[in-house]
Amino acid sequence: MRIFLSALLFLAISSIYAQNTINGVILDASNNDKLAFVNIYFPDLEKGSTTDNDGHFSIDNLPSGSYNILFSMIGYETQSLKLTIPSTSDIEIKLAPSAIEMQSIIISTPFHKLQRDNVMKVEQQSIKDLKTKGAITLADGITNIAGVESVTTGVSIGKPVIRGLSSNRVLVYAQGVRLENQQFGDEHGLGVNDAGIESVEVIKGPASLLYGSDALGGVLYLNPERFAQEGTSFGDFGANYFSNTQGFNTNLGFKTSENNWKFLFRGSLAEHADYNTEDYRVTNTRFREQDFKAGIGYQISKFKTEFRYNVNHSKLGIPEEIGAQTTNKTPLLPYQDITNHILSSKSTVFFNDSRLDINLGYIYNDRKEFEEEHDHEDEEHDDEAHEEHEDDDHDEDHDDEILEAALHMKLKTANYDVKYSLPQIGKFETIVGVQGMHQTNSNYGEEQLIPDATTNDFGILGTSHIHFDKADVQIGARFDTRNIDVLNGLNKNFESFNGALGVKTDIANNLTTRVNFATGFRAPNLSELTSEGSHEGTNRYEIGNESLKSEQNFQVDLSLEFQNEHLELFANGFYNNINNYIFLSPDGNFVNDDPVFLYLQDDAYLYGGEFGFHLHPHPIDWLHFESSFEMVTGKLDDDTYLPLIPANTLTNMVRIEFEKNWFQDGYAFIKLLTAFDQNNNGEFETQTDGYSLLSAGFGGSFKVLNKELQVIVSGNNLTNKAYINHLSRLKPDNIYNIGRNINLGFTYKI
Questions:
Q1: Radius of gyration of the chain from Cα atoms?
Q2: Does residue 299 carry a pLDDT above 50?
Q3: In this predicted structure, what is the pLDDT of residue 100?
Q4: What is the distance of C-alpha 702 from the center of its chain?
Q5: Does position 434 have pLDDT exceeding 60, yes or no?
Q6: What is the pTM assigned to this prediction?
Q7: What angle do CA 685, 687, 693 make, to 5 degrees?
Q8: Tell me, what's the pLDDT at 375?
């Protein structure tokens, strides 16, 4: 690692300040009118500009080399091209009018292309779009992405499920580094706030080639907000109110860029009471979250670097049964108190025809879980006293200093990701790299679920994108090793070799197909190998299995997409075969009234897909009809069904877009989500009835004191349907999911 850092420092010091400049004009392809306010952006360089009133633009201080450049504007088809700098002439770009939404560069895949040019199918959604649909939290918002669901504990805790796989089979990336926060637990949430996140990308299927162990099921990639463009400064303030929980979230941010330096910060606060259903409030689903993000960047022509820091502190009630009906926001016992720190750096050195990317990260997760019996000695804990305590109009504000955490773990993770993009040779773009992780887990509480241990990962990879006349091919291979060393105990080594092959081609006019074959692997985590104790959040006694082998899978993906000016159709299908699938199974015994669960292995397979269309009929391009259907089935080798597989769902939405002189970017929508009966339940699950949820909303922006004010009004479950999602951890207690919720929000740019 020191060698890499030394090389980076040397190259940065020896960089030459090139003064390359590009100039150009952007026109409307239908009438050659010059277009104002078109966005021009170099994703590799993170530099950009906008056209003036005459359609002209100029960007200076660019390094020599070959880079992707992106041109985008609402109402026009996004265009990208490969530009060689220095450019010998001015650029003229013609954008075709289109009612299709703008596309963005995909960051989670290594070659950084528009989705239509990507060999691998990746879903992308902006946080702004997810918020317009009334999402209370980030975990709630991602369920609006096709193929993505969430295992939830109330509204405060949710973990991503991608095509039926979750927990350590799905990697989460934030600020360009893998997020490690004891994600093995069902009741362990993301621990990330959506404030300061620009967009979400989802890789559905094995991504071990790019990310190593634990990406067997896919990747949730969170893109942080961009720095301000050079020479600009601005801030914004936003707030949302949620009627169901009588909750709110607020955030305040500021960013500036001047003389090669960039700065930004954003702080947010959220508080919610117990969520309400048609019949009752769900006791102790209340929570409080504080979040702060900051970043600093420096950029010259041949070198750029940025450092980002995020601290998130959450206090999350753990619901057990329906009790006192209050709207207090201070969590009762039991509750989690979690502080998560993410420190990351992202640096790039540009050569004439190649580049070196170095991403470093440090994640410090401090997890505490408090239980009733660990309150201080003079407090009574009999049922009557507890009931009186809950009925009090003012919940006790638990002082963590006089409460002793039953479970207290500190997880410290340092990781690195170094990639070198070789000069393009003919049709070949090639990237080679190394990735690794050093992680320690330490216990400080009275109880111990998993032991003190050290984990070390190392991986080496190579991948190429090959451009043929009628097809694009991506191919790659990777080798990984993982060592888990338990203090005074177990020492295990796991190795795996994985590969991927994908092809994208246009098989007919406006019809694109993608076929991808990929293998992935997941080494058993510390919990699966070494657990010995009661996992309070799940009410079970877990016993690990030291003889577990790595999970290894092979997945085939097929994607068909048709697109013209007014219609989009898509069909995505997959088949995923997993060897040595690890799962929990009860053995019929009890310890301290908790059922004993053992970790076992068997082969498994999953299959399904997503299908849908988007119609914006001519000539009323402001009207949109969207429909999608998602399905997944998972089974063990003995033909029994896997647990926690989401029900099949059908989503239909009608959306309109409008603008007035005083009201910009206006929209309104109405959506009906139908979840079908889930009768393919795991051996220790029960069947779940289907339901339909009606949502609607509208929003847009207008000027207040010459500054832009964006407003959002949305309502979810408008009929106040009493229902239970199959992936709710409260389902065994027959506790309903959230009822009707009205969201009122605004963002004011200052």
A1: 26
A2: yes
A3: 63
A4: 30
A5: yes
A6: 0.89
A7: 120
A8: 42
Alpha helices by DSSP H, 114-265: 127-132, 138-141, 208-211
Average pLDDT, the chain: 88
DSSP state, residue 31 = T
Beta strands per DSSP E along 509-544:
511-522, 532-535, 540-543
Query: Per the omega criterion (within 30 degrees of 0), is the bond before 43 cis?
Result: no
DSSP state of 611: E
DSSP 103: P
Respond yes or no on whether the N-terminal peptide bond of residue 86 is cis (omega within 30° of 0): yes
Answer left, alpha or beta for residue 387, where phi above 0 means left and psi between -120 and 50 means alpha.
alpha
Q: Considering only CA atoms, which of 425, 421, 435 is closest in space to residue 355?
A: 421
Q: What sign does the dihedral 585-588-590-595 (CA atoms) show?
A: positive
Give the span between the Cα atoms of 344 and 179, in whole angstroms. Answer: 11
pLDDT (tens digit per residue) in 162-177: 999 998 899 999 999 9
Residues 6+ positions from 544 with CB-CB distance below 8 Å: 450, 527, 528, 529, 530, 531, 532, 599
Model confidence band, residue 6 (pLDDT cutoffs 50, 70, 90): low
Phi and psi at residue 284, to the nearest 5°: 70, 30
- Please give the Cα distance from 218 to 588 (Å, whole number): 33
Task: Compute the distance between CA of residue 743 and CA of residue 130 in angstroms, rounded to an integer.
Answer: 13
Query: How confident is the model over 11-53, as pLDDT tens digits?
Result: 444 444 446 888 889 988 888 888 888 888 888 787 888 888 8
What tens digit of pLDDT does each residue of 339-396 get?
Answer: 999 999 999 999 888 999 999 999 999 999 998 754 433 333 344 434 444 444 444 4
pLDDT for position 114: 82
CA-CA distance, 359 to 540, in Å (whole number)? 39
Which residue in 275, 246, 266 sits closest to 140, CA to CA?
Answer: 275
Hey, what amino acid is at 609? G
List CB contacts of 311: < 8 A, sequence separation 6 or more: 291, 292, 339, 340, 341, 342
Q: pLDDT grade, residue 102 (50/70/90)?
A: low
Q: Check: CB of residue 283 under 8 Å from CB of residue 304.
A: no
Beta-carbon-side half-sphere exposure of residue 713 (alpha carbons within 13 Å): 7
User: Largest Cα–Cα distance of the chain, in whole Å?
Assistant: 83
pLDDT tens figures, 631-652: 999 999 999 999 999 999 999 9
3 state SS of 207 = coil
DSSP 292-336: EEEEEEEEETTEEEEEEEEEEEEEEE---S--------SPPSSEE
Instruction: State the DSSP H helix or E strand holding residue 383, giving kind and residue range, or none if neither.
Output: helix 383-391
Residue 502, SS3 per DSSP? strand
Written as one letter, the residue type at 401 is E
pLDDT band for 742, please (50, 70, 90 cuts). Answer: very high
Within 622-677, where are the H helices?
A: none
- For residue 13, give every residue at least 6 positions away whose Cβ sits within 8 Å of its Cβ, in sequence order, or none: none
Place of tokens 């997409």: 561
CA–CA separation, 572 and 5 (whole Å)? 42
pLDDT, tens only, 248-298: 999 999 999 998 899 999 999 999 999 999 999 999 999 999 999 999 999
> Domain spans of the chain?
1-98, 218-385+408-749
Homologous superfamily of the 1-98 domain (CATH):
Carboxypeptidase-like, regulatory domain (2.60.40.1120)
CATH topology of domain 218-385+408-749: Maltoporin; Chain A (2.40.170)
Q: How many residues does the chain have?
A: 750
Residue type for 543, please?
A: I
Do 500 and 476 form a contact (C-beta atoms < 8 A)?
Answer: yes
The β-bridge partners of 591 are 594
Token couple for 93: 């770009």
Euclidean distance between CA atoms 403 and 674, whole angstroms: 44
Cα–Cα dist 508/402, whole Å: 69
CB neighbourhood size of 442 (10 A): 14
Token readout for 278 is: 């048609």
